[in-house]
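Troubleshooting log. The previous structure file for this entry was overwritten by mistake, so regenerating from the original sequence record. Sequence copied from the archived sheet and checked twice against the printout by T.R.
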Amino acid sequence: MNHTETYEGNKQILLLSTLGFFVSVMVWFNMAPFNSTIMEQLGLTKDEIGVLMVVNLALAIPGRIFMGRLVDQYGPRKVFSVLLIVMSIPCFVFAIGTTYWQLLISRLILGTIGASFVVGIRMISEWFPQKHTGFAQGIYAGWGNFGSALAAFTLPTVALAFGGENGWRYAIALTGLIALVYGFIYYKKAQDTPSWKKFERSKSSNGMEATSFSDLILLMLTSLPIYGGLGVLVWSLQNTAVLNVNIAIVIYGILATLYIRNMMKLWKRNREYLKTNIPKSEIYSMKQVSILSFAYFSTFGAELAVISMLPMFFQDTFTLSAVGAGVIASSFAFTNLVARPAGGWLSDKFGRRKTLMTLLFLLSILYFAMSTLSGSWPIALAVVLTMGCSMIGQAASGSVFSMVSFIKRSRTGQIAGMVGAYGNIGSVCFLATLNLFYPSVFFVVIGLCALVCFISSFFIIEPKMDGDTQVSTKKLARKAKLQYPTGLNQKV
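Regenerated output below.
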């Protein structure tokens, strides 16, 4: 069979999935252009709007983990379609909301649509051969994330077209309608794999399973920041005096209880699993997942955090107008259209491990340089440094995900969910750092994280190119055999 011919539908799948993610991001950030309008009409405070912005990100963290499980079990076509259709409901509720609690609850639920990212990652990994996967996923993520910029540019115009004080409601409701319609289109047009290929499903939706005891410990440690990231979100709300201290303590307790409970279940389930004869084809490295998760924490997480603080930083540092600072800040996001696909292409062309290491090293240097920015710098040089930091960081994000689908095919959704969640966790943690320290410290912390990731990337195993198969498991199998206790009757 000529595989080149069997992939003739890959461009259509890439277009369908990229548009799906584009629509998801547009819906996810459809509130941003109307913050001041909503404050004025509904009599909200700046802190209350800030809470709406924070909860809009909150459920994207656990949502990516959950959607990763679903996509591995039921396939990306069904999961992506259902997610778009269901998330149109809280979008409509937000559009017609008249009380703060209606806005808060609908916005909290709507944040789940940010989990759509991991669904498309699994879809593209099924349709593209290894030598093109990085570039295709870079296009998917880079162009899909542009949905937030389109929302910022076009939704105010749509609101003006409808006119009146309810113009913003019509504009936001329109994005929900687009998501609803596109969910049906995606279900009709997309398919999980080419016709000649069988979709490898996860055997259960109980979460990731470790294939050695050392990997089990690492999985439990890697899961901790997911709950910790939600805790930092709660702390941010408490720190702004929006969330009562007593309520915050209760939420901290709930998060701690959930982590302990889920880790006990994880330990029990995996202990039984490790006593079985795990097939060699099922073995994968949790170390790979952990390193890539932290790398995405330091690249995409930093990108989100920097985009959030950059306008005010340039306005204060160089005494620019709000418009001028906004233009510079927007350039940081626009480079995603080119930089993220470029990172995937470089990984396909020159090696995934080598590309990621190079980009992480350069990124650490650039963020250290950003920490020295001051009003004495020529503004042009500051913009060049900022653009360079943006390009390298987003290319590194593309390089990270060029490797995700090669760790274990049947668990791609779960692994992508874990790695993707770390991007959101990174943004929350870096912004919390900014709230505590000066911007110079903020940039130094990001630079240090990138440097630690660079050192950690020496331990990444380069994916093997073997036709259109996944990573060779021979090396992992040999390592796993050494790690298993002798009393478990383990055959690898």
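The longest helix spans residues 286-317. Archived copy saved in two places this time.
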